[in-house]
């Protein structure tokens, strides 16, 4: 809202209050003169006032007493004055407040992070108006949103033209803050409890395949597909076909590690890793096979894959090889770039 408009509205409020106050004082003076001429005592006036302010059950529900007539008669200029002041303020103040609020929102910070993605400057301003647009529309439409934002920018004294607004919208779409045809925005996508559960499990278990995900979160395959598709749209996760499985990853993790992450997310490999984490001093293949009741060749196969990415440490004692986890490399594997 422009500063000149704010000043003008404040001036109107001031004039309204001042005019009502003068009217009240004038009516009060006229009432005093009338009381003197008609011989009405102060006690009689007080009696009326007592009746008006009495909030007892009997008076409120007594149909024989017209409260509104009492309030609006000539002996109650204070109520008339308050009513005359309050009525315009009832319409003016909300309008003024909403415009101040909008102005405050536009100026919020220079940088905002939405689920790991930073937006700044005009992106924040446009995003606020997009959220406003979505409150009145079923889904996001780039063209319609641009027209709506242009009209709101004019009212908010913005400095972007139509092409500038569309450029900012394109930037927000490239950052997956908003998606064409969706009612949701990136900051709302994880408000759904099932979707949040799916997302959290994928983040904690990168490379997990769809069937295992469905088992662990106890949701139907249909729901899994729907929520996963929404997470992919907003680039919170990504999908990859590996070893005849559809696997899911945190979109911020390095793609070159996808195959390994998928491998170590498999149930048998998870059991081997958990065993090695407990036995930090190292164990032989035979010990691992016996303790986990898992075939020796299966153990060797998974350990070989982990060796390719330097996730294991091997040492020999009396010609016996002991295997342990390389904790540092294991942590780096799941580290975001």
Automatic annotation (TrEMBL):
<feature type="transmembrane region" description="Helical">
    <location>
        <begin position="7"/>
        <end position="26"/>
    </location>
</feature>
<feature type="domain" description="HVO-0163 N-terminal HTH">
    <location>
        <begin position="193"/>
        <end position="252"/>
    </location>
</feature>
<dbReference type="InterPro" id="IPR036388">
    <property type="entry name" value="WH-like_DNA-bd_sf"/>
</dbReference>
<dbReference type="InterPro" id="IPR036390">
    <property type="entry name" value="WH_DNA-bd_sf"/>
</dbReference>
<dbReference type="Pfam" id="PF24266">
    <property type="entry name" value="HTH_HVO_0163_N"/>
</dbReference>
<dbReference type="InterPro" id="IPR056504">
    <property type="entry name" value="HTH_HVO_0163_N"/>
</dbReference>
<feature type="transmembrane region" description="Helical">
    <location>
        <begin position="78"/>
        <end position="97"/>
    </location>
</feature>
<keyword id="KW-1133">Transmembrane helix</keyword>
<protein>
    <recommendedName>
        <fullName>HVO-0163 N-terminal HTH domain-containing protein</fullName>
    </recommendedName>
</protein>
<keyword id="KW-0812">Transmembrane</keyword>
<keyword id="KW-0472">Membrane</keyword>
